[in-house]
Structure prediction request, 357 residues.
Amino acid sequence: MAADPPPPHHRARGFQNNYLEFEPPPLSAVLRWRREAARQHLPKPPSTPIPQAAPALDFLHANAGGAAAQVPAVTWIGHATVLAQFGGLSLLTDPIFAERASPVAFAGPKRHQPPGVALAELPHIDLVLVSHNHYDHLDLAAARALAAQPGGSPLFAVPLGLADWFRRRGMPRVVELDWWQTHALAVPGRPAVELMLLPAQHWSGRGLQDRLLTLWGGFAVFAPDCHFFFAGDTGYSRDFADIRERLAPRQTEALGGGFDIALLPIGAYAPRWFMTPQHVDVAQSMDIHRDLGAKRSLGVHWGTFQLTDESLDEPPRVLAAERTARGVPEAAFFTLPIGGTQRLAPRSADARLLSNS
Prediction:
């Protein structure tokens, strides 16, 4: 019996996107970007401070995995790092706590604001979602600190090809997934939580020789009290309409509807001629919110590292203007101060009963 053909995004050497063949930009394009930015004196410094808030540490620890009366909540730590609490778990997305998003400590994009919650202040982390291996999304020192946390390592959920990176660095509690693959995570005293890796339009690589060799993607996490989506890094594509269509049977109105919270990038988008294949702008992020049918979205991936030409404080202003133009309420697509927490309404009791039947 012949083996099934590999999925289209699998290639002889690595992986590709569904709707756009990504090719690393040539040096000439990078130099053009930097010349134009220098000529226009970009990026401009922020005109207003990046909002910050003292973290609600008492709440975060009381609300950690195992709490009998846990409230679904998200806390923005900075960039794409979010602490999410629901389903009896505390999870982190793309943890980066380093001073620089770089392979070296003396160069590369520098953190402009400290993490909203320090590594040592976190509650016990049960699950870490890693969308891809770029330095502003995967911080080796932070991963090792989390693996060594009191009470044991979290489970690291990663795209295909990335598990070996963790194992070779002494972090064996890792599961890797292909797009649309799932993994059930047991939660003591509660229903299991299901993870799913989902397609995104991006690329991978921590150096010049390993580009596209490991997969990238976003994540869905399904728990009785919350359906959670994390986009990772992405350009805009039909992938998000595909996600809504494919997940429609488990997100009917009777079962509680679409994602209760979606973490969507709103920064690192300029100049568009260079960034469009790999990073959405604010308008496209709002299109993803619409395509997914998310109930609420949190804008992340801004205000922490100066990666591109827009000012660090620009994305929320553009988001406010886009909301007004589209008639979208602020509560439907919002931002948080670094360190700020947003509590979420749990999925309805009727929907939870139906989803567990």
User: Anything to note?
Assistant: Residues 50-355 form a domain with the Metallo-beta-lactamase; Chain A fold (CATH 3.60.15.10). The chain has nine helices and 16 strands. The CA atoms of residues 162 and 214 lie 6 Å apart. The longest strand covers residues 190-198.
